[in-house]
Amino acid sequence: MPRRPAFHRRVLDWFDVHGRHDLPWQASRDPYRVWVSEIMLQQTQVKTVIPYYQRFLQRFPDVHALANAEQDEVLHHWTGLGYYARARNLQKAAQVVRDEYAGEFPASLEDLAGLPGIGRSTAGSILAAAFGQRGIILDGNVKRVLARHRAVEGWPGKTAVHDALWEIAEELTPRERHADYNQAMMDLGATLCTRSSPRCGDCPVAADCVAREQGNPGAYPGKKPRKTMPVRNTRFFMARNPAGELWLEKRPAPGIWGGLWCFPEAGERDPAAWCLDVFGAEPGSIEAWHEFRHTFSHYHLDIQPVLLHVPAPAAAVMEADRQLWYNVRENPRIGLAAPVVDLLRQLATGSSPAAGTRKSPKAKE
């Protein structure tokens, strides 16, 4: 029997024919552009990232433009992409590169991994794609491919399982065509070795895949232990002035939606009393909308919006950098929390949530 080609050779041969070669970030080896794409692609699908990536680079074409920008504008260009800590860390890292590396990205694994928001796998991907070095990656798709190929049992979130997968990734990553191999492994996991319906018949490494031999590729990788998601409740006070503007407040940096603009959360406070404190007069009317659910990775947040028609804004003492009147027709360039975007859209069109509890998709903070 002829000897089977090496794992990486089969993966690369498949990639040359079936892989993705026209992604916008593949056209450049500029470390800045590679880095922005890597951060955006964390826990986000390629098709979602592409338009955000293109708009982001149009506004922030280099590391200095990003480092020097206002955070509100950075978050504005991230609104809807989710996991907003990525955007905050992106700008922090740009400022470190500007201030400590004279605007040039470091070309070592240790220095790259020391930048905010860059872990071992992301650093490895940047090393390979931007600097041509042998950078090892282990994103979600790669974990799935390797766990199935070697039948590595257990949830990758466990240290022992995670370390075992890193050892396999180190072993199999070639010393040539590093960027192509990394992209090939991600493509393989995204298109063939998918979570629910793996296409083993088309897989270039199926011949020696242990999970396929066992007949249970879906059993790998192991699932995260299920936990009951806690539920929290809050209310959004949507104060609207006679001009139709909405009162928003900037969230503190730590915590959910950090640095984003949001409707005030009021808990159990009486809306009329809150309006009196903030605007010096009670609201002309109060309209309670139906509650809806926003789900984070670790808990559900049930939100009840309350629309308040308030007096002229002159009564409010406003902190310019923490509070603003939002004009839905002008669309200010600020970052908005995901449920706020949805509510502003409804307010702009004059619609309100349909009867019953409305549930949003899983949130990305």
Automatic annotation (TrEMBL):
Residues 40-191 form the HhH-GPD domain. Gene3D superfamilies: Helix-hairpin-Helix base-excision DNA repair enzymes (C-terminal), Hypothetical protein, domain 2, Nucleoside Triphosphate Pyrophosphohydrolase. The keyword Hydrolase applies. GO terms for biological process: base-excision repair; mismatch repair. One of its GO terms (molecular function) is metal ion binding. It catalyses: Hydrolyzes free adenine bases from 7,8-dihydro-8-oxoguanine:adenine mismatched double-stranded DNA, leaving an apurinic site. Keywords: 4Fe-4S, DNA damage, DNA repair, Glycosidase, Hydrolase, Iron, Iron-sulfur, Metal-binding. This is Adenine DNA glycosylase.
